[in-house]
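thread: overnight batch results

M.L. [08:02]
morning all. the overnight job finished for the chain we discussed friday. pasting input first so we're all looking at the same thing
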Amino acid sequence: MDNRTLEQKAADTILQKAAKVNIGGKEYEAAPPSIATLILVSEAVSRLPHRRLDDKNLVLESLNVAKHCKVLGDVAAILILGARHFNEKVKNPQKAEKGWLRRLFSRKPKLTQHTQGEILSQEILETYSPQKLYDLIAMLLQRMDLSDFFALTTFLTEVNLLRQTKVETETTVFGQ
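M.L. [08:03]
and the structure it wrote out:
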């Protein structure tokens, strides 16, 4: 758990210190907040199942919904890598095949291409508990300056509502 004082946390936020996250023994420096990252997160969240869980059968309901929640790893990976690095391609050699006949005829390992986001998302899903994943996403979302984004979009929406959309030049008869 985080043992820093409130003043230390506030100073880190004001100075925009990068959050460091350890996943699977590898340390990542969380990307600075950007609108493109927020857009990608919003897109990923929209892929979550839209269901209200029944309180009486919470375990069964949760297990039923869990199969559709692979996107939670994507959300965490987007928040860590940022929109700029989430879709970067990375070449990974395929795992060695077990059969001796296949090894005899294969000269080079085949290279598969995955994105950094896919790799990190899978690592998060395999290593993090639900509680740790919740804490990670909550901590990273706090850094996103969501209140500023909300204020900006609200302001622009109001400006759009106030502008004149149609100019009437002729008078029309009622009912036409």
